[in-house]
Design brief:
The complex is a heterodimer of chains A (about 625) and B (about 210). Chain A contains 21 helices and 2 strands. Chain A has about 625 residues and is mostly helical. Chain A has one domain: Cytochrome C Oxidase, Chain A (Up-down Bundle), CATH 1.20.210. In chain A, helix 5 packs parallel to helix 19, helix 9 packs across helix 15 and helix 13 runs antiparallel to helix 15. Chain B is about 80% helix and about 0% strand. Chain B is built from 7 helices and no strands. Chain B starts with a helix and ends with a helix. Chains A and B meet through helix 7, helix 8, helix 9 and helix 20 of A and helix 2 and helix 6 of B. Chain A: Pathway: Energy metabolism; oxidative phosphorylation.
Chain lengths: ~625, ~210
């Protein structure tokens, strides 16, 4: 903290719990926000994981009474919603924050304040959603919240769903805009678009998808919100409403959402496989092209979630063909990864094991995806365990494998210490075997006719063995996560210290600076001369990047508590709206909601009035800090 | 920040895009407007799907009147023009002229809001409540969302103008004025679509 202590408008740091807390509540440093996202998302990942275990325990044996009826519905709803919105998304944002500015040679993101706001909105949204457990029951309408079930027939829990996701979604949208601008405007000299590392490219396309998909969800949630709290008629058939509108809106958001999730995983896999094959990524341009094409097609396929609604053969056919078309760019990527591995000097550490394990697993998820894209066949698969198996193969076998690969790969960069490889390999094999045991047999359960979302099945239906295997697999995955937690704790205490180029064969810019990077990232903005900029310099016999500027004072943004306050005010507003559904307290609750909204706008006003001059880290301090790390 | 004073005397040609922060704001706001387009697009789609579902309540052709909405349209279109004048004045580094045009924009915005409230009150009297039918819910939600955007714009531009007395036109403040005017154009464009899709189509009964 010697850097801060000398700085102009930064108060001298005091030690103690409250100053530590204050530092984390008010930070606008993307590297710290990455850690916040990681642990915030990790918390919800554990909650969602426990919910998954409850589901698998209930389904382990036929006619079980461990968790039935409404409670089971609550748990499956919260499992899906938590895993998608509160675990997967923040994990992605954790990697984005930790890596993107470093990969493009930037000192910061474009909007550090908005970045912090995005995190706190996500986190408070998650808290609002999970408060439902203690305040009258969780949402129970499935993560898709189909109307009119969600808009008319379910209790107060749905209000938590609507407002929690609204707040968290706003945070995600802000984060996306921030990274779009960062990638367009903040690239180091020479870092052209076609020299961007592939992780940056995939995040760029993901951010575009978030930007154009999330507002649809925002509107959909508002419509349910108005139907529930102000008796609007959007989904109320009795007064002319139409519940199919919800399905369209939800999936116009929901389908791009699955590509929002998977594209960054593609990016991670591309980085990890290239690094640990000691080869340039095969077919870089085709990878970029495939990413863009997947992003484009993501908006053209939402009706494949609605084949059984009855939109007619023409609509179903068009969307079926568009869906199958996505297999083409995805196939390009799979082949490129294999060709990158081909003839490479491959290191099989944990990060690369996850990456290599990803390839066949994701292909299997992709193949069932193409099967589901056939409308006539879909009538058989629809709402069966086949669908459950498919989307867990692409989301767990795809995204989570990718994220875990990324965690092991970038952990030394984020924290300055390696994760333990032995524990890592135990973690991988438990998770990999557990995953396939859990979900592979669910394909057959689905084809045999076991419907999803039902809390039990009868004896003698032939579902017993596969369900038991599936539950055993789930426990293996659970143990794998515990091993990972032990690994994290071990690494924090005894982990091997990481060098700047932690894997000694880093290719991209983040490996050219210290681990963890200093507050200002790059002492001198690097000059980029080609794809895999750092590798290129190393091949030219250098050990660091060519600088694009002399060492000088570095301007930094001041930290601010306002993002946290803004999130708190929206939380107050949300709770006010949620309780306005109770007849007795409608007026005071709406007053609280209004007060929360006003508080939010006052924070915005305060932000607008007070210009942030930031502070400078002086040249001498930069030189001093750089000496320390080398 | 001694540089602020220097900038007052020598403002760059495009003060809103002369710093990296300015460029970031400019681009970030365009992206934001892209998201807003989807937001309104979804609301429009919902409205179009439900606009004949009157459920026994008043229909569009029964209640919409041309003169009032036409007046609203003229007022809002004019306010877009005045915000352009304000930005031209900003580029000329003429604080007084910029404030004048932005204040006129704000007044026109308030006039528009006044007309909208009058209009909604009138419909309420003609028994088109928010909960009457799917059409009424969709109508009030779409037009109300736009109205809230206008209200936000009015408050935003006003607070910027109050600040401008102290802060003047600098490379720090110019991007703020500029994106506020972008926002104002955007809600104007949305209104053009509302006028066409909601009112003109409604009155034609098509």
């Amino acid at each position: 903290m010697s850097v801060n202590a000398h700085s102009l408008s930064q108060p001298k740091q005091n030690s103690g719990f409250f100053s530590w807390l204050w530092e984390w509540l008010s930070t606008v440093d993307h590297k710290k926000i990455a850690i916040l996202y990681l642990f915030g998302g990790g918390l919800f990942f554990l909650i969602g994981g426990i919910e998954a275990m409850l589901i698998r325990i209930q389904l382990a044996v036929p006619e079980n009474t461990f968790l039935v009826g409404h409670n089971y519905n609550e748990v499956i709803t919260m499992h899906g919603t938590t895993m998608i919105f509160l675990a997967a998304m923040p994990f992605i944002f954790a990697l984005m924050n930790a890596v993107i500015p470093l990969q493009i040679g930037a000192r910061d993101v474009a909007f550090p304040f908005v970045n912090a706001l995005g995190f706190w909105l996500f986190f408070m949204g998650g808290i609002i959603l999970n408060l439902s457990w203690f305040l009258g029951g969780a949402p129970a309408g499935g993560w898709t919240a189909y109307a009119p079930l969600s808009s008319e027939f379910l209790g107060n829990g749905m209000d938590f769903y609507v407002l929690g996701l609204q707040v968290a979604g706003a945070g995600t949208l802000m984060g996306a805009i921030n990274f779009l601008v960062t990638i367009v405007n903040m690239r180091a000299p020479g870092m052209t678009f076609m020299r961007l590392p592939l992780f940056t490219w995939t995040v760029f396309i993901t951010a575009v998808l978030i930007l154009f998909a999330f507002p649809a969800l925002t509107v959909g949630l508002f419509l349910i919100f108005f139907d529930r709290l102000f008796d609007a008629n959007f989904f109320n058939e009795a007064n002319g409403g139409n519940s199919i509108i919800w399905e369209h809106i939800f999936w116009i958001f929901g389908h791009p959402e699955v590509y929002i999730l998977i594209l960054p995983a593609f990016g991670v896999i591309s980085e990890v496989i290239a690094t640990f094959s000691k080869k340039r990524l095969f077919g870089y341009s085709s990878m970029v092209f495939a990413t863009i094409l997947i992003g484009f097609l993501a908006f053209m396929v939402w009706v494949h979630h609605m084949f059984t609604v009855g939109l007619g053969p023409s609509a179903n056919t068009i969307f079926a063909i568009a869906t199958m078309a996505i297999a083409v760019p995805t196939g390009i990527k799979i082949f490129n990864w294999i060709f990158t591995l081909w003839g490479g000097q491959i290191t099989f550490n944990t990060a690369n094991l996850y990456a290599v394990g990803f390839i066949p697993t994701f292909v299997m998820g992709g193949v069932t995806g193409v099967m589901l894209a056939v409308p006539t066949a879909d009538f058989q698969y629809h709402d069966s365990y086949f669908v459950v198996a498919h989307f867990h193969y692409v989301i767990v076998g795809g995204l989570i494998f990718g994220l875990f690969s990324g965690f092991y790969y970038w952990w030394p960069k984020m924290f300055g210490r390696h994760l333990n490889e032995t524990l890592g390999k135990i973690n991988f094999w438990l998770f990999f075997i557990g995953f396939h045991l859990t979900f592979f047999f669910q394909h057959f359960l689905g084809l045999m006719g076991m419907p999803r979302r039902y809390f039990t099945y009868l004896k003698g239906e032939g579902f017993d063995a596969f369900n038991m295997v599936s539950t055993i697999g789930a426990f293996l995955m659970f143990f794998a996560v515990i091993v990972m937690l032990i690994n994290i704790a071990y690494s924090a205490v005894k982990g091997e210290k990481a060098k700047g180029d932690a894997w000694e064969q880093g290719r991209t810019l983040e490996w050219s600076i210290a681990s963890p990077p200093p507050e200002y990232n790059f002492a001198q903005t690097p000059l980029v001369k080609g794809i895999d900029a750092f590798w290129k310099e190393k091949m030219d016999g250098k050990d660091k990047m060519t600088a694009a500027e002399p060492v000088g004072d570095i301007h930094m943004p001041s930290s601010s508590i306002v993002p946290f306050l803004m999130s708190i005010s929206l939380t107050i507003a949300s709770l006010g709206f949620i309780f306005s559904a109770h007849d007795g307290v409608r007026k005071p609750a709406l007053f609280v909601a209004g007060a929360g909204v006003v508080l939010f706008f006052l924070c915005m006003l305060a932000r607008s009035i007070k210009d942030d001059p930031g502070f400078h880290i002086h040249k001498e301090e930069v030189i001093e800090t750089e000496k320390g790390v080398r | 920040m001694s540089s602020v004073k220097d900038n007052v005397t020598a403002l760059p040609l495009h003060p809103e895009k002369s710093t990296l922060e300015g460029k970031n704001k400019f681009l970030g706001f365009w992206f934001f407007l892209g998201g807003e387009t989807v937001l309104f697009g979804t609301l429009f789609a919902t409205f179009v799907a439900l606009r004949h579902q009157t459920s026994g309540g008043p229909a569009a052709e029964d209640i919409f009147g041309m003169p009032l909405t036409f007046l609203s349209t003229i007022i809002l279109l004019t306010s877009s023009l005045t915000s352009v004048f304000a930005i031209m004045a900003m580029r000329d580094n003429s604080l007084g002229r910029m404030q004048l045009w932005f204040w006129i924009t704000v007044i026109l915005g308030l006039a528009f809001l006044g007309l909208e409230i009058t209009e909604f009150t009138e419909y309420m009297h003609e028994d088109l409540g928010y909960t009457t039918s799917a059409f009424s819910s969709a109508f009030y939600t779409l037009v109300g969302f736009h109205g809230c955007h206008v209200l936000f714009g009015v408050v935003w531009i006003s607070t910027l103008m109050i600040q401008s007395f102290k802060k003047g036109i600098t490379t720090v403040t110019a991007p703020k004025y500029y994106v506020a005017s972008l926002y104002w154009h955007f809600i104007d464009v949305v209104w053009v679509f509302i006028f066409t899709v909601v009112y003109l189509l409604g009155i034609l009964g098509g």
